[in-house]
Amino acid sequence: MKKLIILIALLPALPLQAQTTINRAIGTGFELAIPSNGVYSIGTGASVKAELPISTPVSLTLTGGFTAMFYKSNLFNSSRTPGAATFVPLKAGLKYYFNKGVYAEGEAGTVIEANYAKQSPFAFSIGPGFIVPAGDKNGVEIGFRYESWANQLRQTAIRIAYRFGW
Known about the structure:
Blueprint: H1 2-10, E1 25-35, E2 40-55, E3 58-71, E4 85-99, E5 102-113, E6 122-133, E7 139-149, E8 153-165
Antiparallel strand pairs: 1-2, 1-8, 2-3, 3-4, 4-5, 5-6, 6-7, 7-8
């Protein structure tokens, strides 16, 4: 956790060419999660992310979504696999643009378990991404991230979203 905070604090000091303008945007997208530990084999979901510029290379992000994590089929050694576990991740973070369309992002928040244990573990994520322009202020965002939900789950995730800028 300390490394994540240090990385986020140092990102604005990196001597890289920053994007000249950052637009406010809302992106809606599809997510694919690949767990690296635990009882889940794969996860899918959808999310909405708002982006608000703070300074030239830095934006504040607010993310909310819905994720269904599917259990490994042979977990209970029976022919019946339980239904998917559902989660509602809620996170806030910072996005740093290295140049036009290429960024690194870190987020922290909570994940609300919707159907089984009803826990709300701490969650954080960090990773790179890029935006492919689709008009003046709109675009397709493709992001990759490492994400940890307390001691429950660690995963690699891919997010593909359409951004509506203004």
